[in-house]
Amino acid sequence: METDHGEVRPTLVVMPSAVRLPQIGVWDRPTRFGHWLFPVLIATSWISSQFDDFRWHVRSGLAVLALVVFRISWGFLGGTTARFSQFLKGPVSIRRYVRSDMFDRHYRSIGHNPLGGWSVIALLATLAAMTGSGLIAVDVDDINSGPLASLVSFDQGRSAAYVHHLAFKTLEVLVVLHLVAVALYWIGKRENLVFPMITGRKRVASGPVPLVPGTRSALVVSLLLSVAAVALVLHFA
Amino acid sequence: MQKVVKALVLISSASLVLAVGASSLANAGPGTAAERIAFRKARFMEVGRAAKALRDAVRNPQSDLTAARTAARQLAALSMQLPTWFPAGSGPGSGAKTQAKSEIWTDRVQFDQAAKAFAVQAALLDRLASSGSSASLASEGAKLAQTCKSCHQAFRNGD
Question: Which of A107, A41, A120 has the alpha carbon at shortest distance from A81?
Fold first, then answer.
C-alpha cells in the first residue's frame, strides 16, 4: 500500500470478516521454536534459583546463553521477519507507529512492529548481560559462583552478581511489557499474535512481502555458533 | 616485696584490660552506626576475598599450596574477630542501611555459636594447609562455605 509520500508501508487492507483471507507465512520454524524456548528456559532458570538448585541454574543459564547466541545469529542469517535489518526501524517509523498506526484498528503488518523490534533488542541485550554476568558472578558464600568465576577477582565477581541481579529486574519489566503488548493487541486490535507464533502463519489480505524462511545452512551455522559459545565456556570452566 | 608484686600484677592486668578494650574498640570500628557497618562490610569483603582465593587455589591443579596457605591463615585470623564486628547499635535498628538481621543481637548465643562454627572450620583449614595435606582441602573448604551459608541464612537478609 502506497502512501501519499510514495513509500510502501506495511499496512494491509482488512477485508470483511466473511471473506476467508489467505494464510501467509509470518515466522519461520527456528524463529518460533527459539521464541518459545526462551520462556521455558527463563522459567527453568528462575525456578532453579528459587529452589537453590545451582547445578540446574548453571545448566539452564548456559542453555539461555546458547539460545541468545542462536537468536543473534538468526537475526543476521535467518528468515526475513527475524532479521535485525528488517525489523529495526529508525525514529521516523517509530514516531509514525506510536502516533497513529498503534491506535489504528485496521493496521496490519507482518513481522515485528517498529516498537516491538526494539523490544527484541532490549530482551536480547538484557539476557546477554544476565548470562554473561552470571558466568563470572560470585555469591557471598562462594558456593554458588559462576562457572568462570575463577577468572575474575572477588570484587569483580561481586559486581557481576550485582549486574546479574539488575538484569533480572530489567527482564521482569520487559517480560511484563511484552505480555501487556500482546494482550493489548488482542483486546484493542482484535489481533491474535500468539497463534501465528505457534503456527507460523497468519490470515491477511494480499499485499505484504511474504516471509522468506531461513535456509538449512543458516540454521546449521547458527546452531554451531551457539554450541561453540557453550563449548568455549566449558573449556575455561 | 609483696606490695611490688601486687602493684606489678595490678598494672599489668590493668594494661591488659586496656589493651583488650582498645583492640575491641578498634575492631568495632569508629563511632557512628554507619561507620561501624562500613567497617564490618570491609572486613567481610576481606573474608570473601580470602575464601575465594582459597577455593581458586584448591580448584586449580597447577597451584602450589602457598596461595591456599596464605588464604587459610587469613581466614582463620578474620574468623576469630568476626563477633566483634557486630557491636550493639550496628543493627537494622540503628537507622543505617545493613543486611544484618536484628536476630544477631536478640539471639546472640546462636549467633556466637554460628560464628564459632566458622572459626573452628577456618582453624582446621589453616592447620591442613600449613601441614601441606592438600587432599582434604577441597572437601573441608566446602564445609567452610557451608558455615558461611547457614549463618547468612539465619542472620543476614539476602540480596
Answer: A120
B106 CA to chain A: closest CA distance, Å?
23
Chain B, nearest residue to A145 by Cα: B52
Q: Give the nearest partner residue to B149 out of A141, A150, A158, using CB atoms.
A: A141
| Neighbour-count burial of B145, counting CB atoms closer than 10 A to its CB (0-12 exposed, 13-18 middle, 19+ buried) | buried
How is residue A42 written as a grid cell? Answer: 527463563
Distance of alpha carbon A164 from alpha carbon A126, whole angstroms: 9
CB contact under 8 A, A154 and B149: no
Per-residue confidence in pLDDT tens, chain A, 237 aa: 444 444 445 555 555 555 677 888 999 999 999 999 999 999 999 999 999 899 999 999 999 999 999 999 999 999 999 999 999 999 998 988 888 777 777 776 788 988 899 999 999 999 999 999 999 999 988 788 999 999 999 999 999 999 999 999 999 999 999 999 999 989 988 889 999 999 999 887 766 678 999 999 999 999 999 999 999 999 998
- Amino acid identity of B19? A
Contact A87, A116 (CB under 8 A): yes
**Cα separation, B144 vs A143, whole angstroms:** 10
The candidate with the shortest Cα–Cα distance to A88, out of A55, A65, A122, A60, is: A122
Instruction: Tell whether pTM > 0.90.
Output: no
Which chain A residues touch B114 with a CB distance below 8 Å?
Answer: none
**Type and span of the H or E element at B12:** helix B2-28
Closest chain B residue by Cα to residue A165:
B159
Taking the Cβ of residue B143 and every Cβ of chain A, the question of whether any pair is shorter than 8 Å is answered with no
Bridge partner residues of A201 (DSSP): A25
Q: Helix, strand, or coil here: A2?
A: strand
Report how far residue B96's alpha carbon sits from residue B9's, in angstroms, rounded to the nearest whole number. 43
Give the cell for residue B1. Answer: 616485696
Residue A142 has its nearest CB partner, among B60, B145, B159, at B145
- In eight-state DSSP terms, residue A81 is G
